[in-house]
Design a protein that fits this description.
By secondary structure, the chain is an alpha/beta fold. It is built from 18 helices and 10 strands. It is a multi-pass membrane protein.
Amino acid sequence: MKQKLQIAKYFVGDIISVSLAWFLFNLFRYHLLNIQYSFGSLSGYLNSSKIIEGQIIFPCIFLFIFYLSGYYNHPFLKSRLGEFFTTFLSTLLCTFIVFFVALLNDQSHVYTSYKLILGLFGILFTCVYTCRAIITQRATFRIHNRIWGFNTLIIGAGKKAQNLVYELNHMQKSMGYKIIGYVRTDDQQECISSDLPIFTFSELPEKIKEFSIEELIIAQEHHNRKNMHKLINSLYPLGLPIQIEASEYEMLTSRIKLSNIYGTPFIDISICSLSDCQKNIKRLLDVILSVLALIILSPLFLFLAIKIKTGSKGPVIFKQQRIGYRRKEFTLYKFRTMVNNAEKNGPALSNENDSRITPFGHVMRKYRLDELPQFWNVIKGDMSIVGPRPERKYFIDQLIRRAPYYSLLHQVRPGITSWGMVKFGYARNIDEMIKRLKYEILYLENMSLLVDLKIIIYTVKTVLTGKGI
């Protein structure tokens, strides 16, 4: 609730700031261009239809760009330097968009253009950054002085957990963690004695609701990577930030982003390395491209539906439960390529000579046409166009036993296509799924919009050449 309220404060502050900035810029513009003769007076200028339209339209454009910048993603304990540069770059982009869309015809020579650009940028940046800095300063002051705090559970109940709690509670400037209690993990033999309650792991979902928990911090006694991945995997479905202390080994081998330099550095292992800006742009592009794909490919959808229905008995669309972002289960949609009730004897992976696949199913798999309905999954938010391939719980349980690091894939939405599908293709057994997994982990470590574009290009090539099997 605190997080939503803080985001609302920034959003309302930005609405007021950009509206004021645009109004002040129009006053600056009126006097700079000396256009009194065109409107008779300042009130005539401000009440003109174009100025009123601009007062509504351009602040909306500014707010959209601010959203894409990722500024609203994490409302607490913002880096002052990061806030400055995010505001600087987003207002600079807004300035150039407005200049080329609406102001280019205002200038009579280059000198006037520079004045318009600098005037708009100076006013917009000053208004927006001043308002944001005030809101951030108030929130940071309250957090550092323990007026505000985020209800937190420590996953672990040993000496290491106790020392961590002591350190957090005795910091000169609080990091905002209000420790509610400890959670004893299933493999923990000994527990500390503490004034704080100690819960069992099975009680965790119940206690999260009871105490409105907002953060989880892992403080395991023994750093066993296999057990750690299993623990993380069990925490993902709770939908909360999962913090872990950055050890020296992780400092050397992980991409760690620290925005707060006070006290113990933590890594949030529930999120990927993609920047907030790229996350928002990726999601926007996913929705736009998926909507366009469903519209443009609708004739193909109709053709495929007729061929499937006339080729074999059963539904056109095949539905199956898959595990996605933060281990949340969702219904995946595909064009049916197998005979009806193909898995009546239990879950089984397909292969090239699988007798369960229909003749037309082979054609669809070859060109990956069976995956097309998943654009609807993307619009719903279950999936992304590019991301690790979603699997069923039945196979994930087997994968995690042999490759516990599979749990890291749940940091992101699964995709229609992936680096693993491009480089390896369909897997016919658990061994091949583990081989394909290395490409998915590589994708996770190198996520960017450019990498996504490359994967899409290779996927289109695969579809056009019919190398889907």
